């Protein structure tokens, strides 16, 4: 009788051991961030803001907060390839097509490049914030649509993205000076 219960007893011991053995979880992706610093050929760069990228299902939410800028000013925001020291072209997800009419969450993106974020308005206190969400971007998947590693640029002046989407508009030289920058890095949440 005991001999016939031995395999069952062994199986129960193995199951009990498996149930009590806990796997230590590692860090999990929690999004990405960019600390935005002034670009200056003279003087020490100073931080003027932060950007947070969060994935929510198939959407990426971006929240940008700027501070210590000229009250009442407006600034264009873009994602670029490259680095702050050597910024490349506007990021366009590996495509040469304009994104003006490509749907984002059911409505046209309305900007020529995938990395065209929009204009941020600075209040009388020198602070401004901008939030957007899109299903056109990815976060941390390594695809051409992944914002990880891109460079967030703050430009000196606002831009007219609707005009740039007009089919009769000819390309302009993009001479809007870059005043601040931050590289988009992965942020992890520890267990």
What does this protein structure show overall?
By secondary structure, this protein is mainly beta. The protein has one domain (28-189): Immunoglobulin-like, CATH 2.60.40. It is built from two helices and twelve strands; from the N terminus they run H-E-E-E-E-E-E-E-E-E-E-H-E-E. It has helices spanning 2-20, 161-165, and strands spanning 28-38, 47-56, 59-66, 74-82, 87-90, 103-104, 107-108, 116-121, 128-134, 151-155, 178-183, 185-189. Strands 1, 2, 3, 4, 5, 8, 9, 10, 11 and 12 form a ten-stranded antiparallel beta sheet that branches. It has a two-stranded antiparallel sheet with strand order 6-7. A hairpin with a 4-residue loop joins strand 4 and strand 5. The chain starts with a helix and ends with a strand. Keywords: Signal. Residues 1-18 form the signal peptide.
Keywords, please?
191 residues; mainly beta; Immunoglobulin-like; two-stranded antiparallel sheet; 13% helix
> What is the count of distinct domains?
1
Helix-strand category: mainly beta
- Quaternary assembly: single chain
Biggest sheet layout: 10 strands, antiparallel
Set down the secondary structure blueprint.
Blueprint: H1 2-20, E1 28-38, E2 47-56, E3 59-66, E4 74-82, E5 87-90, E6 103-104, E7 107-108, E8 116-121, E9 128-134, E10 151-155, H2 161-165, E11 178-183, E12 185-189
Antiparallel strand pairs: 1-2, 1-11, 1-12, 2-3, 3-9, 4-5, 4-8, 4-10, 6-7, 10-11
Structure summarized in a few sentences:
This protein is mainly beta.
